[in-house]
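Encode chain A's predicted structure.
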Amino acid sequence: MTKKSQTKRSFSFAAVKDLPRLFKIFRYILPYKWHFLLGLLVLLLSSAASLVFPYVIGLLVDAAGDSEGAFSQNINSIALGLIGILIFMAITSFLRVVSFAYMTQKSMADIRNDIYQHMLLLGIPFFEKRRVGELTSRITADVSMLEEVLQYYIAEFVRQGVTMIFGLVIIAWISPRLTITMLVSFPPIVICTIGFGYFLRRIARQRQDAMAEANVVVEETLQSISDVKAFTNEAFESRRYAARINEVVRLALKAAWFRAGFSTMIIVGIFGGIVIVLWRGATLIESGELLPGQLISFMLYTLFIAAGLGSFSNIFSQLLKAVGATDRIEEILVEKTEIGSLEASNRTEIQGDILFENVSFSYPGRPEVQVIKDFNLELKQSSKIALVGQSGAGKSTIPLLLMRFYELEGGQISIGGKSLEEIDLHQLRHNIGIVPQEVILFGGSISENILYGKPGASHEEVREAARQANALEFIENFPEGFETIVGDRGIKLSGGQRQRIAIARAILKNPSILVMDEATSSLDAESEKLVQSALDLLMENRTTIIIAHRLATIRNVDCIYVLQQGEVVEKGTHEELLLKENGVYQNLLKLQFDSASLA
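Encoded structure for chain A:
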């Protein structure tokens, strides 16, 4: 279905069949049902009071026109009654707003928490199929849409519905003949008003889209300003932005034409309808069939009904948007999770040899490409192995499978003779520490980033982990020390500093299994020396898997596995593999040596 057809459908009253889907979200209201019911009750009372108000105003006018008696007392009593109604409406309006706000904010907080917690329980394949912005919009834009509907539009839907239904009953009781005149003149005007509103909203959305495209141009240009200047494309980017802005202007002027027509129609149509009804009412007063006060009441009720009918289009469209938001939220909440809860029952150390037996695997997004084929590997407890091979050989996939980020197509992985499927996921991942090549830190302080390895650790433990990671000196040289903010993704720290923070985090976690993705490959000589020293300490007495890019750093491991197209083609120590004439490892080492010589 095209975007255009969806837009048309969203404003079709035939789409009312979609509204029951909104009730799926009402389960979040149940814990706060008494606030919701109180809000509905005072809403009905407030609506009833607003319907009485025009009738009492009519009585006041008729009392003022009563020339046969002392009407001052009646006028005073009626005026006091009007004040009482106003006070009652104010109180009920206050209670309604507070009740609906409490119910809405509490239930929306529950929805946000449920969505976020559910996302945390989902597996990596789910996130690979979705964009981060799309998932973020579920918690922000979609929930905000529901919040607006629950707090405002549901109340308005009930209020306007009650006002229209009972308003029609009342004006029919006041004067059936004048009611017929009103029904002939006002509904066509209101329908035209709804039509104009639809076109104005559609143009407004188009203008917003055009403005968003213009903003994208600005964002892309400023993010890549060095490339723009390097290619001397300032004029090109200026023309690209001007084209988007010109489209915004065109749509804004188009909207202005519609607004001008809308204003003209309102002046002629609405006031023309009022004139018609007043003329007909005047003739009925002249003939004695209607009192002046009754005409005033009738006109006020008519305006209430017209306002309610005019607002229904917007209310209906907002409810349908909420239906779409509900569906998108439900899509997340019904996704199958990889773990049952956020916390493990207890955290125990996993010991034993790691064994890969005939493992096969393809990524869910590329099922036709087998990344790992009949893979076998044995890693003795506390030993160190290295995985080497060209890019795309499958090196980085092995630790992902060990952590059960993905499910195997074939074969089995076990630790201490126990299959991974038998080990609690929390326990498994708690026992595996990763030091990646590209460290991405959280935007908080250094202390918070190290604590991520063991939330709740003492400052002394954090400080000791930093010392072992050779990070204490540079941390304490900062004016704020451990409270230094690292910036988005750790941008305020150098590569070597980020690596040592990551190592300190792994030390604090104290895993029994360690995975290192060549943590020193992108560092300068001085930083590499400090990081390598910290890594050597971290690897002591731990089962370690090293994903090697620079082969010179893995000469002392217990065994090197050489991968090619997802299969182990060679294995052995550094010295053993060098003795294999025309071996894959020997050729990789030669290529790196030649590249280093050329550099």
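The domain at 20-333 is CATH 1.20.1560.10 (ABC transporter transmembrane region fold).
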